[in-house]
Design brief:
The structure holds 3 protein chains of 3 kinds. By secondary structure, chain A is α/β, with parallel strands linked by helices. Chain A is built from 35 helices and 39 strands. Helix content of chain A is 31%, strand content 19%. In chain A, helix 8 crosses helix 15, helix 13 crosses helix 14 and helix 15 packs antiparallel against helix 23. In chain B, helix 3 runs antiparallel to helix 4. Classes of the chains: A alpha/beta, B alpha+beta, C mainly alpha. Chains in contact: A-B, A-C, B-C. Chains B and C meet through strand 2, helix 2, helix 3 and helix 4 of B and helix 2, helix 6, helix 8 and helix 16 of C.
């Protein structure tokens, strides 16, 4: 509890004294409540005229409201061992983030009681130590000053007590009571739901989220006559066919997929393979809670290492992507086919026919070559391939895919099935109908933002208004919150107890790391209250549900996982006739121009719209920040006579009007090479109206045209709108200008000449004019980045931002080229203008041994450490920017303004105390997470380990933030003097090369060349 | 003259450098040693004519240069290699090549200081009083007059004789000035 | 226009001698002193008011900059240096002509320098003052700028990195400023004595008296004085060459394509002389007209300077050509890209080609005597040349930085209004200093001119030249 007191003091006291009377007066409470919505939207743009007021408002609000504290259960580890706590040292707790019907198992770093850094949980089958961008950034939402902090009745501040009175008046039999929740994947909530059903038989419970994969389940319904969810084993698959399915990023339900997939991107060793035993040795050591994240590397080592002796080395897999948008899966693909969304369906049918899965004539003659080659490849890999389709595609496609996998003998091998449930959008439609017909007395909305993201044709906002009593529980007063009669502040998952089942059914306990910062409650507590009539304790609900004894409970908390809860795989037999019937009845979809709806890479369905980290994380393909666009191919853009006028500090995009079934929205275009023609991709989640200062008015709202009949894609009319819109991106040039930057070759070439990436290095001999420094002894840190594994997902970027207190600068400053990210993902297009390939290259400080930045710094603010790090002494830097000018990789970042000025008291709690917060006028850059290195060093000293040649560290004992979170294990960091370390192994790899090596700056970060494994028949 | 010890010397005022030059030469021939010429601009050869030694400033400046050079080398070597050695761009702690610019600049700087303040020092400046300022026409010296002073302390000095001598040299004006 | 009364007053005083064609030493004294002695004219105050208010803008901009951060400029990543260093190099370059005229021409016994060197040296000092502002304020934390000097400080008891060209700059520029100031002052001492002796008011008498240190023009004084002056000239000559060489190291020592070029030192020095002489011409044309000193600053002087401009301009043009050749011949793709794409055809082509036309083409007109002796023409060209030289620095800095090795990090630089107004303000400072200089100090080296007259054995001879030259005829016996 110590650390919790700490919070109390930090926030409560600090402002209590000065603002005591003030914060008590209802007038002030009102003012606080109202001040936030009035804050300028562009606060991050540094243009705001009322920053002072806002910051004060935020702080005072915090002060005033931290007063309302509830007595809260103890967080276990402290209850157990307070004396074990060393103030100033961080602790790690396992928990999980419920998300979109799945879950990410997490380990959260807590410093003096403040959760500050989120990482993946090694023990969790679905995270395997990795964490996605959204999960990592979610910690910022916890400290969002614009969070919903109090109960609102008709928009006026109210209290939980007065809400309780109202809630008690709900009809006992649940007549006219409707509950609308997000996807329920919490056993506790499911249990309560059951109880509610029996207590209020007439009540109905509906689940809705904007992006579900219900079509997938529906498909299995057709094929198997049962609601099944496919589970994939990419480790076993030689051939993967992704049909309009970005399984490597956006629609990824399990980071384990990426881990396994990238493990199979490693080519079979050609010459003498470097041994990885040392790496593998460490693979499984049980991790106590505090160790949990240190345990992570173990899995990394394991997953990343090529199959150990004994196993046959399966070599590099082959990925086919058939898609409309250019997704990260498409970037990774060895063969990629651009198709309109509706043509994907036909493609699947043709493929099934070619494989003899179903009978009938082919539809797409022009894809014949592709179909044949693909079919042949699949046939050759029976039982060793995966065909998978995305949720945008209709059920019939998934049914056919199920049949294909069965025909290929993949079912039971690479594809297995677990039980699942349907969550059809029809239910929401029905609810809307009931609301409009006045059949609903009370509507309880548990989380989500249906008014904003429900299909536009349901006009859900108006429907909700019709309910006599509407209650909305949400983390922010969003579009739904302002319409509902009652708004209830919802607890962040880091501050409330819960549990959650992930994609494969494994259950994790959602363990809070801090008591609620404000008077908030969780969904289970609300339902519990509706059941019992009194406020339950989330902790007890969850513990009761888990049915675990104390020991089991502790283990579950510690591991972040209830062992053996993964869903059993069920044997399903796909019914060919049923599928064929479905195929024959499949409606002819599509039109001349089709619009498809994607969740935003960064904001998902809009729930992260007030998260500045994510707003400033570049879209992986377009590199746009602080905006979304209507993405189309160059050809289509030409046909529509729309274009982007590049401007030196951004771009002016032509505006278009997208019209679907009478609904219109205006959006700026973005022309993306490789996008399917006659198709427009809309990124959802932007254009939020009722939201905090960060997200308000950013982008356009794609949900405004999304019909319930075309949740995935729909045909549309596109017309040119007058005027252009100013957008900024973090990368304006997309060609490598023929320079050897990303070394790439087909697998075939690699097998012939494995050293292709080193050609230059081997032919140009370099020498120094002076005696170079000796780095052969002690710990010498280095990094190897496998371009073949990197998916370009941005996880490392967010991890770095969170770990290193990197400020957000806002759209205007990004436009001026002043973004601060220490690691960026350079994305280059190669090949054809219309249908190119793309490659990613993570780019952070290369820690050159002969660092050009160091020699030009007049005040020696950047110098070399004995361990080969290119150190920055922030408090010595005067800011001449000479170092940045002389950096060939341009990875140095300069604080042109005081970018921390707008950070209010609450958000400051997210800062990592191990890392200096840089003032303006100071240069900064990646330092291989030197704070982690030092931490490990201290630990090693404390444990009195002997310091061998390799230094006192266990292999992979600690990792940089980017490496730790990389699901693809593309980033490997370690001691290059340690022959056992993974990094020293990789640096011996044939594909290993130093970027711009001819400058002889001797970068410590090297890259492993990219390989593609295209089907020769499609060459 | 014992009753007039406060005489600094006799001023002879000429209107052209040539006349002054002749006068100086004549004075030397006549055995005068303690004399000084005052002119609006340097007159070449007058030093030799008066038998003055060449300026020693050059040697002083040489000393300044040596000092500057030494300081520069020591500064860069000591700070870089002794007091606070840092690995910078993998380069040696101290090397001559990158040190040359600063060595050169410091050498020049100190030489210049000596050249200027040495000159001022050798000229006994700043000094806001000098007997010559008692000469009624001294303002002409910085304009267009060329003045020769034969000092009273000169063995050969004799108020009348010297006056006659200088008049013979074509001085436009003669005047005794107080010390 | 400004000092018309001067003109009249001077005429009255000088006419007899000038017309009879017998300017005496006294006439010279008069001609120069009078400028500082006549009653201050209203127009002088007007000029002062204008220039100081422009300087005020400079002050405001700098205050805003220091208070807010370098972000108020257009600088960004990758273009870490923009107008700040461009203007620094620009002003430093201008300064060089002063030292060159006063030192190098002195060593080469170029008699024609005497009547312009004082003015040129003043220009050097004022230009260096303007230049000096930039390195100080371009840093992110100006209040820590003093860390650039090797003085032990309370923060991180460590030393400077003496390998950094920026630190070489610190030494070079501060040495240059100091030595130029000393050189200038030494030259002033005898003339200050003249002013002292002509002073009408007690105040002036004391002021000039102290400033002239009690100079009395004795043979001993002159002996040491000439020695000192000769040594200073000898020191300044390599110094002035070294300063721009070292400034060019800021770029040449880096590894940036377009910067990493061994031709930079001579190329920068030539450019500096080029722009510096242009600036002297600009100022001289104005000054001799306002202060009516045509008989001292003759057409010969101006023409000689134009010849230097022609010569250096051609050298600079040659340097540009060489850069392209090296880029092509080296076969270095990054290098070639900078020159053949970024500069010649890239987003900054407009800047590059304005540089070429101003620096390489415009001075070629000076091949024609008619043009190089025409006041209005040389005035225009001299200004064009300085515009061109500003562009040269901008092109070198911006085009090299905005597109270097990794295309993903490419960007663009666009100046902010603060960039522009700051630069504008430095001209205010430059002019203000000049306004004061011409009011209170001898703008022509009196004693040196007299010395020169004496050397040219017969005064008539000198007069002929003066008269001839002021009529634009080639003088005899001066230029030998």
């Amino acid at each position: 509890m110590i650390q919790i007191q700490g919070i109390g003091n930090q926030t409560g006291k600090k402002f209590w004294r000065s603002l005591d009377e003030l914060s008590n007066s209802p007038k002030f409470q009102n003012w606080v409540a109202q001040e936030f919505p009035e804050g300028a939207a562009d606060v991050m743009d540094g243009k705001s005229r009322r920053k002072f007021l806002q910051v004060m408002a935020a702080s005072m609000g915090l002060a005033g409201l931290t007063a309302c504290r509830r007595p809260v259960e103890k967080i276990l580890p402290y209850a157990k061992s307070v004396e074990g706590v060393v103030m100033g040292n961080s602790l790690h707790f396992a928990t999980a983030m419920p998300f979109n019907g799945g879950a990410q198992g997490l380990v959260v770093e807590s410093f003096d009681g403040r959760p500050i850094k989120i990482e993946g949980n090694t023990n969790h089958p679905e995270s395997r130590g990795a964490a996605g961008t959204l999960a990592q950034a979610s910690v910022l939402n916890l400290y969002d000053p614009d969070r919903s902090k109090e109960v609102l009745a008709d928009g006026k501040p109210s209290t939980w007590d007065s809400f309780s009175k109202v809630a008690a008046t709900l009809p006992a039999d649940g007549e006219g009571v409707r509950v609308l929740s997000t996807l329920v994947n919490s056993p506790t909530l499911a249990g309560l739901r059951g109880q509610l059903a029996s207590k209020m038989p007439k009540a109905k419970w509906v689940e809705y989220e904007a992006f579900t994969d219900d079509t997938l389940i529906e498909g299995s319904q057709i094929a198997f006559g049962d609601a099944l969810r496919p589970q994939f084993d990419f480790k076993k698959a030689n051939v993967v066919v992704a049909l309009d399915f970005d399984f490597l990023e956006l629609e990824n339900r399990s980071l384990g997929w990426v881990k396994d997939f990238s493990a199979r991107r490693k080519p079979a060793p050609v010459a003498a393979p470097a041994s990885h035993h040392g790496a593998a040795a460490d693979a499984h050591h049980a991790a106590p809670a505090a160790e949990a994240h240190h345990g992570a590397p173990a899995a990394t080592e394991h997953a990343a290492a090529p199959p150990a002796a004994g196993e046959a080395t399966p070599g590099m897999n082959r990925l086919y992507a058939i898609e409309s948008n250019f997704t990260l899966t498409g970037v990774m693909a060895d063969n990629r086919l651009r198709l309109k969304p509706s043509d994907v369906q036909n493609f699947v049918f043709d493929l099934a026919r070619a494989l003899g899965a179903i009978t009938g004539l082919q539809i797409l003659g022009q894809q014949d070559r592709w179909i044949k080659a693909l079919a042949k490849d699949l046939q050759a890999n029976r039982g060793k391939s995966i065909v998978l389709a995305g949720s945008r595609q209709p059920a019939v496609v998934h049914a056919v895919v199920a049949l294909i996998n069965q025909t290929l003998g993949n079912a039971g091998e690479t594809v297995t099935y677990t039980k699942d449930v349907r969550r059809p959008v029809a239910a929401l439609k029905e609810l809307a109908g009931e609301l409009n017909s006045g059949g609903v007395k009370a509507l309880v909305i548990l989380g989500g933002n249906p008014v904003y993201d429900a299909p536009v044709d349901l006009a859900f906002g108006d429907a909700v208004k019709k309910a006599p009593l509407s209650i909305h529980l949400g983390p922010e007063v969003n579009e739904t919150g302002v319409i509902a009669k009652w708004h209830l502040p919802e607890s962040h998952y880091l501050e409330a107890w819960g549990d959650v089942a992930s994609n494969d059914g494994s259950i994790s306990i959602v363990q809070p790391l801090i008591e609620p910062l404000f008077a908030t409650k969780s969904a289970i507590e609300i339902v519990g209250f509706l059941l019992a009539g009194k406020w339950p304790k989330g902790f007890e609900l969850v513990k009761a549900q888990s049915k675990l004894d104390e020991a089991g409970w502790r283990k579950a908390l510690h591991d972040g996982l209830l062992a053996g809860t993964a869903g059993a795989s069920v044997k399903g037999a796909a019914d060919k006739t049923k599928v064929e019937a479905a195929v024959n009845n499949a409606p002819k979809t599509g039109g001349r121009i089709e619009v498809q709806f994607f969740p935003s890479h960064n904001l998902w369905d809009g729930r992260f719209a007030n998260n500045a980290w994510l707003q400033e994380a570049p879209d992986p393909m377009s590199k746009l920040v602080w905006d979304n666009a209507a993405v189309m191919s160059p050809k289509t853009a030409k046909e529509l006579q729309v274009e982007i006028i590049p401007d030196d500090v951004g771009m002016y995009a032509q505006k278009i009007i997208v019209e679907i079934g009478g609904q219109k929205v205006e959006a700026p275009v973005y022309v993306l090479p490789g996008h399917a023609d006659n198709t427009v991709t809309l990124m959802c989640g932007y254009g939020r109206k009722e939201i905090g200062r960060v997200g308000r008015g950013i982008g356009y709202n794609a949900f405004a045209v999304r019909p319930s009949t075309g949740l995935g894609f729909a045909s549309a009319n596109i017309t040119k709108a007058p005027g252009t819109y100013y957008m900024v991106s973090t990368q304006e040039h997309h060609s490598q200008e023929g320079r050897p930057i990303v070394q790439e070759a087909p697998l075939a070439k690699y097998e012939k000449e494995p050293h292709f990436a080193k050609e230059e290095e081997e032919h140009v001999e370099l020498f120094s004019l002076f005696q170079e420094h000796d780095y052969s002894k002690g710990n010498q840190w280095g990094m190897a980045i496998d371009l073949n594994a990197c998916t370009g997902c941005n996880s490392c970027l967010i991890a770095c931002q969170s770990e290193n207190n990197i400020p957000v600068v806002g759209k205007e400053q990004v436009g001026k080229g002043r973004e601060m990210h220490w690691i960026r993902l350079d994305r280059y297009f190669t090949g054809d203008e219309e249908d190119p390939q793309a490659v990613y290259q993570p780019m952070a400080c290369q820690q050159c041994e002969n660092a050009p930045c160091e020699s030009v710094c007049p005040v020696a603010a950047t110098v070399h450490s004995p361990e080969g790090l290119n150190d920055m002494a922030y408090n010595r830097c005067v800011g001449t920017r000479y170092c940045a000018n002389n950096c060939p990789y341009k990875v140095r970042r300069f604080n042109y303004l005081n970018f921390h000025k707008d950070m209010d008291e609450l958000t400051k709690m997210v800062q990592n105390p191990d890392v200096t917060v840089r003032m303006r006028g100071v240069m900064e850059k990646c330092n291989y997470c030197v704070q982690r290195i030092q931490e490990a060093k201290i630990k090693a000293k404390a444990e009195g380990r002997a310091s061998g040649a390799a230094g006192p560290y266990k292999v992979g004992e600690f990792m940089t933030a980017c490496q730790q979170t990389c699901a693809a294990d593309a980033i490997v960091f370690g001691n290059i003097n340690d022959p056992e370390s993974k990094v020293s192994q990789l640096k011996k790899d044939h594909r290993n090369y130093a970027l711009l090596h001819e400058l002889n700056v001797k970068p410590r970060t090297t890259y492993l060349a990219k390989l593609r494994n295209p089907n020769p028949e499609l060459a | 003259m014992a009753d007039k010890p406060s005489i600094h010397g006799l001023v002879a005022d000429f209107d052209s450098p040539d006349k002054l030059m002749d006068a100086v030469k004549a004075a030397r021939k006549a055995g005068y040693t303690k004399m000084e010429a005052y002119t609006p601009f340097p007159i070449h050869g007058i030093d030799d004519a008066m038998g003055a030694k060449p300026s020693i400033l050059g040697y002083l400046v040489l000393g300044g240069s040596a000092t500057g050079l030494t300081i520069a080398v020591l500064l860069q070597w000591w700070t870089g290699a002794v007091d606070y050695p840092l690995v910078i761009a993998g380069k040696p702690y101290f090397a001559l090549e990158p040190s040359i610019p600063i060595i050169f600049e410091l050498t020049v700087l100190l030489s210049a200081f000596v050249a200027v303040f040495g000159m001022i020092g050798l000229n006994g400046l700043p000094n806001l009083y000098h007997p010559i300022f008692n000469y009624s026409g001294h303002k002409g010296i910085t304009d267009d007059r060329f003045v020769l002073v034969i000092e009273a302390s000169d063995r050969e000095f004799d108020a009348t004789a010297t006056r006659d001598f200088l008049t013979a040299q074509g001085a436009d004006k003669l005047e005794l000035i107080e010390a | 226009m400004a000092e018309l009364t001067h003109a009249q007053e001077m005429k009255e005083r000088l006419t007899p001698s000038l017309t009879t064609g017998h300017p005496t030493y006294h006439d010279v004294t008069e001609a120069v002193s009078i400028i500082a002695e006549v009653k201050t004219h209203r127009n002088w105050y007007i000029a002062l008011a204008i220039s100081t208010s422009i300087t005020g803008i400079l002050g405001l901009m700098l205050a805003y900059l220091v208070a807010t951060g370098v972000g108020v400029w257009g600088n960004n990543s990758p273009v870490g240096w923009g107008w700040d260093i461009t203007n620094f190099v620009f002003w430093i370059g201008i300064g060089h002509a002063g030292t060159l005229i006063s030192a190098i021409l002195f060593l080469f016994r170029q008699k024609w320098r005497t009547s312009i060197n004082r003015f040129a040296e003043a220009m050097t000092l004022f230009a260096v003052a303007c230049a000096g502002i930039y390195p100080a304020v371009h840093v992110g934390r100006p209040w820590r700028a003093y860390w650039l000097f090797p003085i032990p400080n309370e923060f991180l008891n460590m030393w400077q990195n003496f390998r950094s060209p920026l630190l070489w700059d610190v030494f070079a520029v501060s040495t240059y400023a100091t030595v130029s100031a000393l050189f200038w002052y030494v030259g002033l001492i005898p003339d200050l004595a003249t002013f002292r002796d002509r002073a009408k008011t007690k105040g002036k008498q004391i002021a000039y008296g102290i400033a002239s240190l009690g100079w009395r023009g004795s043979a001993t004084h002159w002996k040491n004085y000439e020695k000192s002056y000769m040594i200073l000239a000898g020191l300044s000559t390599p110094l002035v060459l070294s300063v721009h060489t070292i400034v060019s190291f800021d770029f040449a020592v880096s590894i940036l394509p377009g910067w990493h070029t061994t031709i930079f030192p001579p190329y920068f020095v030539a450019g500096a002389i080029f722009s510096g002489f242009a600036m002297v011409v600009t100022l001289m044309v104005i000054a001799r007209w306002i202060y009516k000193v045509e008989h001292l600053v003759t057409m010969t002087h101006l023409e000689n300077m134009n010849k230097v401009i022609l010569a250096t301009g051609t050298i600079v043009g040659y340097a540009y050509a060489t850069e392209f050749f090296t880029a092509w011949y080296s076969g270095n793709p990054y290098e070639s890209y900078v020159f053949f794409v970024s500069r010649a055809t890239g987003p900054y082509a407009w800047a590059y080609w304005s540089m070429i036309s101003c620096n390489v083409i415009s001075p070629q007109f000076f091949w024609f005597k008619k043009l190089r002796t025409s006041l209005p023409f040389m005035f225009v060209i001299s200004i064009v040349v300085n515009i061109g030289m500003w562009f040269e620095r901008f092109v070198i800095i911006a085009t090299s930085l905005h597109r270097d090795y990794l295309p993903a990090s490419w960007g663009y630089f666009r100046p902010s209004f603060v960039d522009i107004l700051t630069f504008f303000g430095t001209f205010g400072l430059f002019i203000t200093l000049f306004v004061f200089f011409t009011r209170f100090l001898p703008i022509i080296a009196i004693s040196e001119v007299k010395g020169m007259m004496a050397q040219t054995h017969h005064e008539e001879h000198f007069l002929d030249e003066a008269v001839a030259a002021s009529e634009g005829k080639q003088p005899v016996g001066v230029a030998h």
